[in-house]
Amino acid sequence: MSETPIASETVDSVSKVEEYKGLYSWVASVDHKQIGILYLIFTIIFLLLGGIEALLLRIQLAQPTSTFLSPQAYNQLFTMHGTTMIFLVVMPMLIGLATYLVPLMIGARDMAFPRLNALSFWLLVFGGLLLYYSFITQGGAPNVGWFSYAPLSEKPFSLWTGGVDYWALGLLVAGIGTVSSGVNLITTIFALRAEGLTIRRLPLFVWMVLVNSFLIILALSILNASLVMLLADRLLGAHYFRPATGGSAILWQHLFWAFGHPEVYIMVLPAFGILSEVIPVFSRKPIFGYEFVAGSTVAIGLLSFGVWAHHMFTVGLGHILDSFFGIASMLIAIPTGVKIFNWIATMWGGSIRFTTAMLFAVAFLVQFTVGGLSGVHFAVVPIDWQTTDTYYVVAHFHYVLFGGTFFGIMAGIYYWFPKITGRMLSEGLGKIHFWTMLIGFNLTFFVQHILGLIGMPRRVYTYPDLPHWGMLNLVSTIGAFILALSVLVFVWNIIASLRNGKPAGDNPWDAWTLEWATTSPPPVHNFDRLPPIRGRRPLWDFTHPDKADWKVHEKNGT
Amino acid sequence: MSPLLSGSLFHSSPFNPSSPHAQVISDLFILVLYISAVIFLVVFGSLLYAILRYRGKPGQPDPAQEFGNAKIEIVWTALPFLIVVFLCVFTVKTMYSADPPAKGGDPDLVIIGHQWWWEARYPKSGVVTANEIHIPVGKNFLVRLESADVIHDFWVPQLSRKMDAVPGQVNYIWLQASEAGTYLGACSEYCGAQHAWMRIRVIAQPEAEFEKWQQEQLKVPSKPTTGEVALGAELFERLTCVNCHTISGTIAEANVGPDLTHLASRQTLGAGILENTPSNLARWLANPHAVKPGVLMPNMKLTESEINLLVAYLGTLK
Ligand code: HEM
Ligand SMILES: [Cu+2]
Questions:
Q1: What's this model's pTM, rounded to 2 decimal places?
Q2: For residue B71, is it left (φ>0), alpha (ψ between -120 and 50) or beta?
Q3: B152 alpha carbon – ligand 2 mean position (Å)
Q4: Under an 8 A CB cutoff, do B193 and A75 touch?
């Protein structure tokens, strides 16, 4: 880089979009910040719905042979709970955060395709409404699980319920929107970076969103195609997945998991990105091994397309295929482990501030490690032969998705809420939120490991009164209510802080990436001025001119 | 069976194996759990150290800014890699000893998953039964798994790996018990409304007892000629029960519901939902949907006296 004096550059302002005011602006807006906020509101509403569904399930399971819910109701609720949490909460929450943050973090005025951005969000809303509409149709909501295995999901076995049709249509509509988000984010990141922000200087959150967006385009397209095939079977009398008429039940599983496994990473990579922003800032050190954290993300992204059949070790694919997919799955543990080590190394030697955001990030590290290790157990094929489709799996994916991703999202929300709203979230309520969520989560899901091991299959609406089963399930249900309480504290914190939270100022955490270089909340056009970008931490360089990263690197010749 | 585990939390778990096949899986699982515990302690320990040691104090100046260290990165990439290689070797080895390929041999037992019960056929002797599977202790049974409708999964943790019963496909597993006893299992692939009540009992008996059981099961019940039992038998053939069930020696030869020829010799009804007692049988017949909502057996709308006659008759089918 040439030795130009630090000078601010003005972002060339895009032709000014008409500013709408009031409620109408929330429907008509194509501003990425407003759309990002809409995503967050939408997903919090569905979080509450999915949470209520989960509580009903846990009440039913609190005792053996309970009759609180009918099997039909139970089966609908677990299907809706899973579908909601995956497609209407976790994934869109991450996309929403990315929609809000990516343009700010790269110093851009908006997304590359603002109208497409709005379309993505509204398709998600319509998909969600279609899915939930099924509750009031004859036969009720879908009842075949979030992966709708054929032939159970085919007409002869789900004859009386259109629920499966709404499930497929709803996901298809939302899925088209999600693919568009992927395209939009990739284009934005490639085309709209501020001057000086090279790919190797991107904030890690943006890096992970970038890899994630490629996964989204590839994986969601497979899902969308499979949903069309399922709908063709159900509505047009096709035979793709119907063994009775020459189709293949296993084909559905291959297609679904070719989407479904990358989907798991789609739900976790952006959370990795959040951690990679939060941990450095609150440890007061740059991320340890930037290249390795970014590179391991690419490795995970690539590997994630070669492991889908680890969901199918009991289908009878034969030992050769089982071994291949088992080994490929174990390999993913390596780049994932590398990340955990890098985060801990970032904290090592730092000066750690335990804000609520940081607490959630630390809890993520522990819980994600537990979920990651049980994940390796499933890759060890013979262990999978004993544990798949039991509560061991339920415990595993909740440790990854709730203990991991969701805790990561919480860290992100406590971290960026001041930027988004201009007000701080209450740290006092935040700590209550954190500790109740930590206790509730582990109480609910840790015992489920044991339940799985002692023989409890997943997706059973009730169970026989076998020794210890009732007691362990009761503990899990109590945990679920503590969790519910923690979510209420969180929602209350948001409402209370919006009303009278401390004003945030531009950069309350003394952070280093570009989004903190503008006001909180940012103006419609995002930035009046951008600081010069000569490294990965433009604001650090700006406030520490003599210790600027690029100077250090220049001196070390790195 | 390990005496340590009898009565304990893990009594019916994969950690209390009663067959050589389940044993090798248990051994591998325990090894992997130890490795996992070590990894967890390393991660948790270093995190805990970092948290306690590097807690910032207000007003503290910024710490030294380090950006990484390629050598350390290589070490902590290589170490997990070695663990993975180690695990891969054990994984593949155990796969073959836990589940030796069947090589197309004749099955000793054919198990067919139905919504929501298990049909069990012994092709070598001709015995047909449901939900409760008898095997001789120490003998290695080759089991062929099929499905009549959707995907089910046959799982008895103490005896064998689980395996799906897939429509349009056959799968094989080995089923063996080293000790006599009753082993509990369940359908382990969601298969619709009553997936919860698709439980399995494997009853392992000494060879001689098993042979005796087979002989009993093969007997064709004699046609009752007097009293309530005869009236019940007549009723059974007159009602539409015969459209779905089999009782050998009668006109009932259908295979939609479980074979009832030796119903009274079984321990449970409705794939584990009720103990097999006369009063529970009466409850089932009065309305199966009140017992097992969603079940594919219709409510036969029987009168109380009809139920009593049927219970009397079915009770004789030992
Ligand atoms: C009055 C006539 C009938 C009698 C006495 C009768 C009796 C029984 C009994 C005792 C069982 C429990 C068997 C066991 O658990 O081993 C049973 C289960 C069953 N029956 Fe029937 N049945 C009758 C009619 C029918 C009909 C007409 C159908 C077919 C539409 C049918 C379908 C089934 C099915 C599918 C099951 C298995 C239920 C499950 O466990 O999920 N039954 N029946
Ligand atoms: Cu089943």
A1: 0.92
A2: alpha
A3: 4
A4: yes
